[in-house]
Amino acid sequence: MTNTHNVNDIKVNENIFAKRVILIDENGSKMGEFLTKDALSIADERGFDLIEVSNTGGIVVCKLGDYGKMKYAMKKKESSSRKNQVQQQLKEIKIRPLTSDHDLNIKAQSVRKFLSQGNKVKISVQFQGREMSHRHVGYDQCDKISKMVEDLGLVEQDPMIEGKVMYMILSPLTSKKSS
Fold first, then answer.
1. Among candidates 88, 95, 89, which has minimal Cα distance to 167?
2. Model confidence pTM above 0.70
3. What domains are there in the chain, each with its CATH number?
4. Per-residue pLDDT tens digits for 8-57
């Protein structure tokens, strides 16, 4: 177990099974190497818990401290880091094979807005009736939109047909660079 960060993985007091430990006092100063039972008695005398901080290569480092406070602080830190995470969503824009160029420009503005917010965008081209025999028009529509927003996003999934719907997925450029 190396540098445990999960609250449930931390060994405390009698759950530390090493014979010898390096002890750090409540102020962060190194006290030296002790038998675990001696370190436990020191912790008990001072009114603290013996908390395993690190266990690497057979060297166990323990610290004197309040386990309840440490557990609370770790949970607070974990929840605040979850709060700061940005959830990426999949937004959908629906068009038709015969959507006019002006309307495509308006849809492209929406796509640009979604991509700039860091969201992925699914472009759906919905076919009806005999329009399915002219699939190339759907590919052209997808191509037009992807060219209009190529400065903000790139094609993650090329256009594919599922039933009477052709779809393509665009992802923001920033997410591609970080992964």
1. 95
2. no
3. 7-83 (3.10.20.80), 90-178 (3.30.110.10)
4. 677 888 888 888 888 888 888 888 888 888 888 888 888 888 888 888 87
